[in-house]
Amino acid sequence: MVKSLVTVCVSACLLLSLNACTQDKDANTTLTDTTEQSHTLRIAAAANLSDVLPHIIDSYQADNSSSAQNISGISDIEVTYASSGKLYAQIKAGAPYDIFLSANQDFPAKLADENSADVTSKERKLTKPFTYTRGQLALYSVSKPLNDFTPTSLGDVFTSADFTQDSKVAIANPDLAPYGASAKAYLQSQNMYDKLNAQKSLIQSENIGQAFQYAYTGSVDYGFVAQSQLVAIKAKPEQFITLLPASYPAILQDGIIINNTAPAADFTDYLRSKAGQQHFLQVGYLAVQ
Hints:
GO terms for molecular function: metal ion binding; molybdate ion binding. This protein is of the alpha/beta class.
């Protein structure tokens, strides 16, 4: 009888011990599953977004943390800023980005086309490109006051007494930069591009950042720059004219999801939402529908 009781007790202890181990294992599994569900979102972003994207991310994370239905699964957001061409090359080389936000429409379109053509590639789940903002073009000068001119009389700037044979106008490379292409198209529509080019007044920079630097430092008399650059430095009203959006080809910036997950889709939805677009409006971009 005593021996039977001891056997029962030992068996019961072993059973309790096994149950405890099972529960610990289940708890560890649950913890692992929760950890695996969290996701670090990796974004490749054009350099011109370095002023606005951090604010959008902060707003997005604040909205998610205060929401009772936070299902994004994003634990952290890491952003790499560089030229769109450099980021495109990194993605082609296999860089582990989830989202690519380009300064133009070309690179996302190339990625989408190349992915469609490569039927053997199953590693990435690219979506179709989407437009997330629209840039504005402005004429900027630190040495020639522009308060006597308006967007509709901008052509008068280049025929005024202040504009001489020695005057210089900076534009970004039209073959590489969307802002440069739009500036060239605007000048052509005003019948000024060939004239300025012939008298060697046009100074072509590598990109819109360099065009801005030329004008900001006074190395040129005028520069066709991004409105967002002027907002960032709080330029004085007499230093610039914002061109009418209808007077030049739209400067559209596209993005593409490289790794089509729920977190990536959730963030890009926010980027194009009314809340996300408001951030772009505040820093000199135009909202997109």
